[in-house]
Amino acid sequence: MKRRMISALLAGALCTGTAIVPAGAVHVTDIAGLGVMAAVSAVSSALESDDVHAAPPVQDGASIGFRGLEETVRANNQTIQAFKKTLAGIANTNLDAQFWAQEMQYQVQLNEYSKQVNAYETYIKSLEVLKDGGDSNATIDAQITMAESLLKVAQAGAAQISAIIDGLDDAQEDAENELDDTYASTEKQLENAANQIVVGAQTAYLGVITIREGIETLDRNLAALDRNIQVVEKQVEIGMASELTLENLKQARRTAAAQRETLVLQQTTTENQLSLLCGNTADTTVHPTTAPTVTEQQLAEMNYEKDLDEALDNSYSIWSARDEMRQASNDYEDDVTSTVDAYEAAKLNLEYAEENVTNSFRQLYLDVQDKKRLLDEAQAAYENEQRNFAVDELQYERGMISKIDYLTAQDDLAAQEDAVRTAEHDLFSAYNTYDWAKRGYMAGA
Questions:
Q1: Which residue, of 39, 194, 212, 439, has the fewest CB within 10 Å?
Q2: Terminus-to-terminus CA distance in the chain, angstroms?
Q3: Would you state the pLDDT for residue 29?
Q4: What is the pTM of this model?
Q5: Cβ contact 270:212 at 8 Å
Q6: Is 361 exposed, middle or buried (0-12, 13-18, 19+ CB in 10 A)?
Q7: What integer best gives the mean pLDDT of the chain?
Q8: What's the rounded Cα separation, in Å, for the pair 212 and 230?
Q9: Of all residues in the chain, what percent carry a pLDDT higher than 90?
Q10: By C-alpha distance, which of 48, 19, 72, 34 is closest to 274?
Q11: Which long-range contacts (CB under 8 A, 24 or more apart) does 291-296 make?
């Protein structure tokens, strides 16, 4: 009985066009005499009491365009900010203070050894005085021998510490060079990681655009199915169509509706992921504005040989292989490795990286050309469909075709327009990947 009352009240609320909003708990028996909004609130509370979970809190929304996306991600992404702090920590390393502290510590040790040397020398002299005074015996000789041994140990320790102190300047210079190498290497690695994050954000942006357009297509398909269902329902009434045909249409609509719900969820999820990549909290989501496109000028400025040289110069994978070869060479020179095998292996790896980047870049270049060709074909097909639609529109105005046929022609035109948009997205994606390769980031190479 309780659920019947709830259903009735919900139906009444929907009829008035009032939105249903979760509210505090109110018993169904307290609903009598309340207004529509109060009734809706009470109904929501009743649903809540039946273990119907409330929706997640509403997020703040913000729009973002593709042009400013990279700048936003680099400025606000928390991981990239952590990268910057890591580099700052390396850059702020104070080697002067560290080596000065070490020198002071070694100086203290040297002073202690010097005191020991002076003490043993004085002690030996005193023993020799006793020996020269005629008191020489085996005990004094043994003491002198022991003291001389300890003196040598103290002198050796002092000499060792002195050598360390004398070598601190060279050690600091080596440490500074190593620190510079560490900074350059870390900077390159973190730059590549930051590029990967930016590319991920751009991919999510384009993904939302694609999902959004997929929802629009499904909406159009659902509207077409609704029209067809109405027609077939009439046909079933007069015996021109079977119930099975009608049920198949309804099932197709249910499938399309379920697909739409899935896309809506995917859109929300992807927008939230994009928002986090932009440095926002979970309370905020972002909505991409318009889809980016490639200009004719950008395509005309593509120069394979020139762009390949740029890609080879900036390639992270080539830099990584070259850095590995440099390290292997240094290790060999410093006798860290006993053979040249490590260096030769690193050299081969560098050659492979260069060849791999060259081959991959060629494919990216050809992919842009292919996507441009497909876009031209899609645009030509769309223009042809426009001409066909103009004929259908004229026939509809003259009463030569039905409204159903006219709306179907509209759908065909819209579908061809979708094909153009898809081809534009594919072209931009290919060009953007090509441009990133020029900048040094190439997934898988």
A1: 439
A2: 66
A3: 31
A4: 0.73
A5: no
A6: buried
A7: 84
A8: 27
A9: 58
A10: 72
A11: 291/66, 291/206, 291/209, 291/421, 291/424, 291/425, 291/428, 292/66, 292/67, 292/206, 292/428, 292/432, 293/424, 293/427, 293/428, 294/424, 294/427, 294/428, 294/431
403 — phi, psi (to 5°)? -65, -35
Structure tokens at 437: 């390769």
Q: Considering just the CA atoms, what is the radius of gyration of the chain in Å?
A: 40
List, in sequence order, every residue forming a beta bridge with 64; answer none if it has no partner: 288
CB 271 within 8 A of CB 208: yes
pLDDT tens column, 211-252: 999 999 999 999 999 999 999 999 999 999 999 999 999 999
Residue 354 C-alpha from the chain's centroid:
25
pLDDT tens readout for residues 28-42: 233 233 333 333 343
Q: Where residue 396 falls among pLDDT bands split at 50, 70, 90?
A: very high
Amino acid letter, residue 313:
D
**Is pLDDT at 343 greater than 50 in this prediction?**
yes
**Nearest-angstrom CA–CA distance, 226 and 236:** 15
What are residue 284's DSSP bridge partners?
Answer: 60
**Torsion angle of the four alpha carbons 319, 323, 326, 327, in this order, in degrees rounded to the nearest 10:** -170
| Cα–Cα distance measured from residue 136 to residue 124, given in angstroms and rounded to the nearest whole number | 13
Q: How far apart are the C-alpha atoms of 181 and 5, rounded to whole Å? A: 75
Cα(317)–Cα(441) distance, integer angstroms: 8
Question: Percentage of the chain with pLDDT > 70?
Answer: 84
Per-residue tokens: 413? 């035109």
**Closest by CA position to 440, among listed 332, 344, 310, 329:** 310
**Sole residue written with tokens 């939302």:** 208
Q: Considering only CA atoms, which of 317, 73, 357 is closest in space to residue 200?
A: 73
- Contact indicator for 312, 352 with CB cutoff of 8 Å: no
Q: Which residues pair with 61 in a beta bridge?
A: 285
Nearest to 44 by CA among 83, 1, 9, 81: 9
Contact 362, 307 (CB under 8 A): no
- Taking the CB of residue 343, how many other CB atoms lie within 10 A of it? 20
The whole-angstrom distance between residue 428's C-alpha and the CA centroid of its chain comes to: 19
**Is 120 exposed, middle or buried, given 0-12, 13-18 or 19+ CB atoms closer than 10 A?**
buried
If you average pLDDT over each of 165-169, 278-282, 308-312, which comes out highest? 308-312
Among residues 201, 209, 404, the alpha carbon closest in space to that of 288 is found at 209
Q: Which helix (H) or strand (E) holds 285?
A: strand 284-288
Distance, in Å, from the CA atom of 130 to the CA atom of 68, rounded to the nearest integer, reads 91
Least confident of 2-16, 70-84, 294-308, 328-342: 2-16
pLDDT score, position 140: 81
